[in-house]
Predict the structure.
Amino acid sequence: MSEPPGEARDESRPVPRAEPRPVPTLIPPPSAVLDEAHLGDIEGALGRIRVGDDGGRRGLRRRLVTFLAIMGPGLIVMVGDNDAGGVSTYAEAGQNYGYSLLWVLLLLIPVLIVNQEMVVRLGAVTGVGHARLINERFGRFWGWFSVGDLFLLNFLTIVTEFIGVSLALRYFGISPYVSVPLTAVVLIAITASGSFRRWERAIFLFIATSLVLYPLALASHPRYGAIAYHLVVPGIQGGASSTAILLIIAIVGTTVAPWQLFFQQSNVVDKRITPRFIGYERADTALGAVVVVVGAVAVVVVAVFAVRGTNLIGKFTDALGVARALEHHGYWYGALFAIVLLDASLIGASAVTLSTSYAFGDVFGLRHSLHRSFRDARQFYLFYTVLVAAAAGVVLIPSAPLGLITTSVQALAGVLLPSASVFLLLLCNDPEVLGPWVNSRWLNIAASVIIGVLLTLSGTLVVSTVFPSLNVGEVAVALAIALIVAGGGTGLWLERVQRRRPGARPGPPRMSEQERRNWRMPPLALLQPVQWSPGIKLGVLLLRGYLVVSVVLLAVKAVQLGGG
């Protein structure tokens, strides 16, 4: 390049270096995450991961540190299932049926992992809550139907948590009119602190306190041979009956509850976990599934020990009765069990109420994040406060049938769970929602088997209620065979129809692992509408009709038991 006219070049002056051009960065495509509180660093109780972290980890120590930061949603949702209703239900199983129902708990481990792994993917990939996905993808009718189920069931479940609080502290001579309001204030203060990390640390403290259950179980002289036998060999002490089937459904309902789906997905979103860290959250979920089942077995062991050699076998009243029975072996046995019950009630109340509040924010489009202050998300926290206060108020009503409410709520959860699982399965097979993260064939088969088992249990209860003279075991076997035949035939028919249908929607596009880890669901308004086949529409309608009948008959059965 020539010098400008009239200007000589100074050779002694250094030639300025050209500034390097900035390397263009890839701007991620828009996603469905609308709340800026759901974007940023992962702030866990045990560590922090910066927003720019690509998720690549080498070395055991770095992976362990990352896991500790991610850990939370899976462990909390599982331990929250061993809540007041769970402790009461497992204690009833131990006191009335000994070790004979332990096989139900072992079978629930794969059920828990399969169900909750699907919501982990939905939360990390979509960035929105479960209630909002159902509302947007299946329409307001189905959205309100599902969320209506959730609100009713969750409110009654929160009532059972305060029942647990009142029973636990009554053991120490504290009146429910003191313990219940004080607990409500503590729960509201922990949740409305405006810090996700502070809330998670408080829950982790409660989880650490729950560990007193394990030395209590070891001190209860467990019969390891009998425990091992009943974990793998199905049976019911005293034979099958409609009451026993009701209790089995209650065990399923308290261990695999619908609120779990809504809570963990929203909590994954609120913790800002993205697809890059799905593997760690899967490990968190698997760990929680093992912990919840081991804890349930421990409660059964303690309940069996409490009534061993007494006339209380088969005469369960409530969890406080188990604590009183343990006093025969020493005051501290009963005191530790009461602490376990109180701790379980606090964890369950926090998780279930938060699950409902998350869904409330999803449905009404409100700011709903534990990262926000009370002033910044007033409606979200006010809804949480009203739920807690109302549930606490129900418990303080004189002569309320608290024991019957506890058992019936868990059974109701077992009856409603198939409906929630069906929508979960439909969402996880929607390529518009999960793209390259949709379910594999084997996972669909496993989820379908789980739904079939849940329908068999609830169907057995319905038939045995209408026709009490029938053999309950034979009814369960007949329904299982009918569901296998109907499900298998329907599946083959739908697959043949799908193959013959012209212009069927192709599967998710093939992507590299890096592209897959960075894929997020686009804004919901940009997604193609859901295409339901006639078979799926008919199946969902039949399921809803069946559930309405089941809930009515379950209420009849609960009233019969209360009168007896």
